[in-house]
Amino acid sequence: MPKKVDHQERRTLITDALMRVAAEQGLEAVSLRHVAAEAGVSAGMVQHYFRTKDEMMAFALAVVRERSQIRVTEAVARLGENPSPRLLLRTMIAALLPLDERTRDDGRVALAFLAYIAVRPAAAPSLREDTVQLTGFIASVLPSRDAVAAAGLLALMEGLGVYLLGGQYTTEQALAALDAHLDLLFGSSTGA
Q1: Residue 22 is part of which domain span?
Q2: How many domains, in total, are found in the chain?
Q3: Residue 7 above 60 pLDDT?
Q4: CB 112 within 8 A of CB 22
Q5: Is the pTM of this model over 0.90?
Q6: Which of 12, 87, 96, 111 has its CA 20 to 30 A from that of 64?
Q7: Largest CA distance in the chain
């Protein structure tokens, strides 16, 4: 009787290997061969699930996106009902920033993916729509309802993420910068 293959288990094994390679060595190191070696499987098995590097990259970004959505949802749920718009945005952005070791790996993968698609825009058609939606949501929460201010806050978040990953900012410095910018948008705060 042929062995029953658990495709979800194999895909998870390959995905975990892909994320480790991308987080530890950067996306330039991601290849069918490297991911297969990290997962302890054949390159043919990896190719069964991902035909091209672009498919692997898009999948890695989808994993990071899903983890980020879970972190944001959980953080916002802890705020209870009807948090202030400022606190809502601070909580969301803090949940997206690479503030600890667990989120730094995802942040490295996301940053590497952004660099990857900078020269291959067709590799991530959904990223543009995600950005438009996030900017729209942020604008809807800001007192000014200004899409340009929302884009600036999103850019601040990305910049803080880069500085956190590069070690130029500590967690405290990044959160202080975020709070200072939120003060500009919402008026001075009495705390987070």
Answers
A1: 1-51
A2: 2
A3: yes
A4: yes
A5: no
A6: 87
A7: 70
Instruction: Read off the tokens for 155.
Output: 């850019």
148 shares its domain with 103: yes
- Taking the C-alpha atoms of residue 11 and residue 17, their distance in angstroms, rounded to an integer, is 10
Q: Which two tokens stand for residue 55?
A: 């498919």
Q: Are residues 39 and 78 in the same domain?
A: no
Q: How confident is the model at residue 113 (pLDDT cuts 50, 70, 90)?
A: confident
57 vs 176: which has the higher pLDDT? 176
Same domain, 66 and 138: yes
Stretch among 8-12, 121-125, 153-157, 170-174 having the lowest mean pLDDT? 121-125
In a domain, 192, yes or no: no
Query: How much of the chain, in percent, has pLDDT values that exceed 90?
Result: 52
- 145 and 157, same domain (yes or no): yes
- DSSP letter at 109 equals H
Based on the domain organization, do 35 and 107 belong to the same domain? no
Give the whole-angstrom CA distance, residue 66 versus residue 70.
6
Q: What is the pLDDT of residues 58-84, one digit of tens each?
A: 777 788 888 899 999 999 999 999 999
Same-domain check for residues 43 and 131: no
Which residue, 19, 16, 53, 13, is CA-closest to 33?
53
Q: Which two tokens stand for residue 191?
A: 């705390």
d(CA 110, CA 101): 14
- Give the CB-side neighbour count of residue 149, counting CA atoms within 13 A: 16
CATH of the domain at 5: 1.10.10.60
